[in-house]
Design brief:
The protein is an alpha/beta fold. About 40% of the residues lie in helices and about 15% in strands. The chain has 13 helices and 15 strands. It has a seven-stranded mixed sheet, with helices on both faces. A four-stranded mixed sheet has the order 1-2-3-13. Strands 11-12-15-14 form a four-stranded antiparallel sheet. Strand 2 and strand 3 form a beta hairpin. Bound molecules: pyridoxal-5'-phosphate (PLP). Pyridoxal-5'-phosphate binds next to helix 5.
Length: about 450
């Protein structure tokens, strides 16, 4: 291997010369070369360590280089590296069974994809074929992925340049009490009014034209928006009333992020289709899928499902998924997330609101929290404008740089910082990382005061 400085220079040169990056103006980025990772930490080529409070893209639930996942992939590669999807395969079937066992009652079958966008793409396709209807309702402030239908359903600026490839997409406002679109003052009001708005949207669009409603169980990248009491049950009831398929997008929150196998378990509602990806195997090999209710699955007992992928249920990915279940159970990952979330993270981040003038709202569940930064706690003016870029985004850039200097890799989006470390993070690392973010918030305080 090359000595570190030469290796780093080579990585930079190859990347800048040849890698075309996601969501970026290619000339304005400078991707950081990362040399290696272990558990909740990764290192650059200069030996600087970063505690990953973003779990990469909130997918690295079991951390870097988990020995059980690595071994499972290695063993599977030695045994049968790939097999096409119309064949019955042991790890594919085992993972589907394990997923069905932890899914809500009445969801027994799994269609595997290569990631989250495809999972949503296929869930929508199933709902359309099942209902014979075309429209799909999704929220403003949502992200569902970047393939044609998934990006059309997305309710954030990433959709704008792709608008609107799938003409069946219709958006509505979801609950967001801190900036309530419904002028609500309590979670109960927010829930009730958001449901009334959704029902009105359904009626105005024509219930008989709507195949599905897709909702992130807790809205992820667009703000860790935890639904108020009764909201998701209300969505279920509306779907029942109008014959609409309820799709829960659990790509970010499934597999432990909220301290539950599926996030929906925290809200006592029952979707018809659940989409997943990321945490199912921490992204060691790309994998996603749709968990399907018996009612929908049985409609395809005689009607052929119109969809498929060469790598559906790839054995290497599924082997890592089976190992994920073993680790979760052996190491009590769900219990650990609930414990660390309520005992360590929640009190710490809630205390920031009193301590830092730039902290406007704090919300979350499990190991998934958002801290919303503002210029003024009274007016709630965001620290940077919605969709800010360049100089407008500088205060968030300064906050992120301070966090990195303190050894934490933060997740930031618009005027928010999210706390989403790997679910295996040691308590001492968690406390240390939170302290570094606490320090970095002074930089946001200074920016707010300017
Ligand atoms: N849905 C949600 C809620 C997500 O957070 C993401 C990715 O961040 C996706 C879908 C898309 O997943 P993928 O990037 O694997 O296609």
């Amino acid at each position: 291997p090359l000595p570190a400085p030469e290796a780093e220079a080579q990585v930079r040169a190859d990347d800048r010369g040849h890698v075309f990056h996601s969501w970026s103006a290619q000339g304005l980025i400078d991707p950081m070369p990362v040399a290696t990772g272990e558990g909740s930490t990764f290192w650059d080529y200069q030996g600087n360590a970063y505690l990953d409070f973003s779990s990469q893209l909130v997918n690295l639930n079991l951390g870097h280089q988990h020995p059980d996942l690595v071994a499972a992939i290695q063993q599977q590669a030695g045994r049968l590296a790939t097999i096409q999807p119309s064949i019955a395969n042991d790890v594919r079937g085992e993972l589907a069974r394990l997923i069905a066992e932890v899914a809500p009652e009445g969801l027994e079958k799994v269609f595997f994809t290569n990631g989250g966008a495809e999972a949503n793409e296929y869930a929508v396709r199933m709902a359309r074929q099942f209902t014979g209807r075309r429209k799909v309702l999704s929220m403003y402030r949502s992200y569902h992925g970047s393939t044609s239908t998934a990006i059309s359903l997305t309710g954030d600026p990433r959709r704008w340049a792709n608008d609107t490839v799938d003409s069946g997409a219709v958006r509505f406002f979801g609950p967001y009490l801190y900036r309530s679109p419904f002028h609500a003052e309590t979670p109960e009001q927010e829930s009730e009014r958001a449901l009334a708005h959704l029902e009105q949207t359904i009626q105005l669009e024509g219930p008989q034209t709507i195949a599905a409603i897709i909702i992130e169980t807790v809205v992820g990248t667009n703000g860790v928006l935890v639904p108020p009491p009764g909201y998701l049950q209300g969505v279920r009831a509306l779907c029942d009333r109008y014959g609409i398929v309820y799709i829960a997008d659990e790509v970010m929150v499934g597999f432990g992020r909220l301290g539950e196998w599926f996030g929906i378990d925290a809200f006592d509602a029952s979707p018809d289709l659940i989409t997943f990806a990321k945490g199912v195997n921490s992204g060691y090999v790309p994998l996603g899928g749709v968990v399907i209710s018996d009612r929908i699955a049985s409609a395809f007992d005689t009607m052929p499902f119109a969809g498929g992928l060469t790598y559906s249920g790839h054995p290497l990915a599924c082997a890592a998924g089976v190992a994920t279940f073993e680790v979760f159970r052996r190491d009590g990952i769900l219990e650990r997330v609930r414990d660390l979330g309520t005992r360590v993270v929640e009190p710490t981040v809630r205390a920031w609101a009193a301590k830092h003038p730039s902290v406007g709202d704090v919300r979350g569940l499990g190991l998934f929290w958002a801290v919303e930064l503002v210029r003024d706690q009274e007016t709630r003016e965001p620290l940077v404008p919605f969709n800010a870029a360049g100089a407008d985004a500088a205060p968030m850039g300064a906050f992120a740089a301070a966090a990195k200097k303190g050894g934490v890799w933060p997740f930031t989006h618009f005027n928010r910082m999210h706390v989403a470390p790997p679910l295996v993070i040691g308590e001492d690392d968690l406390v240390r990382g939170l302290a570094a973010l606490d320090d970095a918030l002074s930089v946001a305080d200074e920016a707010a005061a300017r």
